[in-house]
Amino acid sequence: MPDTYATDFQERYYSSSDGLKLYARDYRPREAAATGLLPVICLAGLTRNTRDFHPLALLLSQDEAMPRRVIALDSRGRGNSAWDENKSNYNLAMEVGDVITACAALGIERAIFIGTSRGGLILHLLAAMRPDLLEAVIFNDIGPVIEAEGLVRIRDYLNNGRRPADWNEAAEILRENHRAAFTALEEQDWHEMAHALYRDVSGKPVADFDPAIAEALQSVDFSQPLPDLWAQFESLNQLPLLLIRGENTLLLSQETANEMARRHSGLALHAASDQGHAPLLHVGSIPTAIQAFLTGCR
User: Fold this and answer.
1) What is the mean pLDDT of residues 236-259?
2) Largest CA distance in the chain
3) CA distance 63 to 107
4) What domains can be seen in the chain, in order of their start residue?
5) The 10-15 sheet, strands edge to edge
């Protein structure tokens, strides 16, 4: 998925509360402004960026019946947002503050949010801190409990040190790491994933995030229980909620998904067949599930 879609969105830059330059893609066709529908804001995973959401953003913003403004954010240290010299600022509290700042800068008073992995953790905190911003939430393979096995796997492949020499090798590295869990993907999907994860630097793919973000996982003590966010999850109780869970995920257990449904009677659960962590939102039946969910939102 080469990044050649400048006409599909506006590039927006704004400053964080501590002065860091942050980036967003703003998909807003004229039709979306006329409908009066609330926008969709997309938050990416730990080392991912706005490009993850491009196919879905096009689908939602160009929907003939219900076009919506779609905004995808690059968290600090990822994508086109600046790297933070203070590496300790790569934390959930700072990043939820950046989302609040983004909403103010982009004129968003209320929205539907999609959070993939870490983006969903940010939404747990946002629900507790600024519930007025949330109209509905879509969690992509994330919940209040993270399975250590899944996080260890993420730590290991992010820190394995292998750097691709070209774009074909970038796609091959992703396929080697993930093909067992992502049997739904075709050859082209791996190449599109490569262009979403890597940045082109003089014709070569380079990981598009501050390495300090991945390195921080090496200091996590996995012999101790990971903290949960059940208290923050309760703040979502009155909101429409869609949970997408990868059939082969190691990060979000079926037990946690079931408990989320028990605690939130209105939760809709969608299984992403033949995908792991985190499901690609434009693959298989996921876009249909998201669009059906959005029809119930203003």
Assistant:
1) 98
2) 53
3) 22
4) 6-147+227-294 (3.40.50.1820)
5) 10-15, 21-27, 70-74, 40-43, 111-116, 134-140, 241-246, 268-272
Do the beta carbons of residue 243 and residue 233 sit within 8 Å?
no
* Beta strand pairing call for 40-43 and 21-27: unpaired
Q: How many residues does the chain have?
A: 298
In 3D space, the residue among 94, 83, 102 whose CA is nearest the CA of residue 213 turns out to be 83
Separation of alpha carbons 251 and 153, rounded Å: 9
**Is 275 buried (19+), middle (13-18) or exposed (0-12) by CB count in 10 A?**
buried
d(CA 22, CA 76): 6
- Classify residue 64 as exposed, middle or buried by CB count within 10 Å of its CB (0-12, 13-18, 19+): exposed
Give 178-224 pLDDT, tens digit per residue: 999 999 999 999 999 999 999 999 999 999 999 999 999 999 999 99
Least Cα distance to 74 among 162, 152, 11, 150 occurs for: 11
In eight-state DSSP terms, residue 91 is S
Strands 111-116 and 134-140: parallel
Q: Tell me the per-residue pLDDT of 122-141, one tens digit each, with 9 for 90 and over.
A: 999 999 999 999 999 999 99
Contact between 145 and 228 (Cβ < 8 Å):
yes
Which amino acid does the sequence have at 130?
R
**296/26 Cα distance (integer angstroms):** 23
